[in-house]
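Dataset card, provenance and construction

Sequences and ligand SMILES were collected as paired inputs. For each pair, a complete structure of the chain with the small molecule in place was predicted and serialized as structure tokens. The example below shows a pair involving zinc ion. Curators did not alter the output after generation; any descriptive sentences attached to a record were derived from the structure itself.
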Amino acid sequence: MGFAERYADVKAFAPVGLRGHLRHAALTGLSSWYRAQGRLEESLARPRVQFLYIHHTFTDELPALERLIQNLGRTHAFIPYGEAVDRILKARIDRPYLCVSSDDGFRNNLDGGRVLRDHGVSACFFINPGLIGLRDPERIRQVCAERLHFPPVAFLDWDEVNELAAMGHEIGSHSWEHRRLGSLSMEALHDDIGRSRDAIVDHVGAAPHFAYPYGRFRDLPAEGVKAVFEAGHRSCASAERGCHISDAPLQNNQLHIRRDHVILDWPLEHVRYFLANSARRASTAKNGYPAQP
Ligand SMILES: [Zn+2]
């Protein structure tokens, strides 16, 4: 059984249906209308901290990663994850800032990590310690299908995780093995979050950031948010769209990071549209974890 090496393999695994094509056409229309109104550039010029997250950097996606960094880098400063968190917490947001992160710890993150490093960008890679170094093909197939809805893709091992760290990237926790944290008992939830951080600290030396699997607010109960900070993390990230502005200092646990999902295969104009849309709607009211997600 082979592993998916190219994004083309993933698309063949889950072909885009009619809905996908209609969505694509609608986005193309929306983004050109937005651009024609001059609203795209205006929104993207807004001072803010915006987090992008990608999952995978397959070989056929690397040119798109390079284009994305070059294009957005003309009007934004790319900053490391720790600095992005600090700027929000200290209300020091004087220009448009972007920060790159990647979830799930696929082995192809190494290639993406190199491209980012070569362009002077430090990212945060969120990994699942329980899946790091996984070799059994049947188990990989099962995890990818059940938890990630993906064809089999190889995971990083600890040497490779350390290679990413040596490139200047941060390593964050994405929970032990990508379970739905909301489905765990309170005890198992605390155990999962603490154990994941400890494993990363043991292997890499630090694990300041946490991003939960699936990323909707409902995927991390309030008790989980508490567990994330009790375990010693400095930040907790969702995958809800949005970005951050701040006008007064915040405590670590008053910030619940929003991130904009990016698939590198999407047209650049679609990505710019999503980012501009989040930038336009930025509000200090969106910095925290919602009372009732
Ligand atoms: Zn994930």
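Derived descriptions for this record:
The domain at 7-284 is CATH 3.20.20.370 (TIM Barrel).
Strands lie at 48-54, 77-78, 96-103, 124-127, 170-173, 209-211, 235-237, 259-261.
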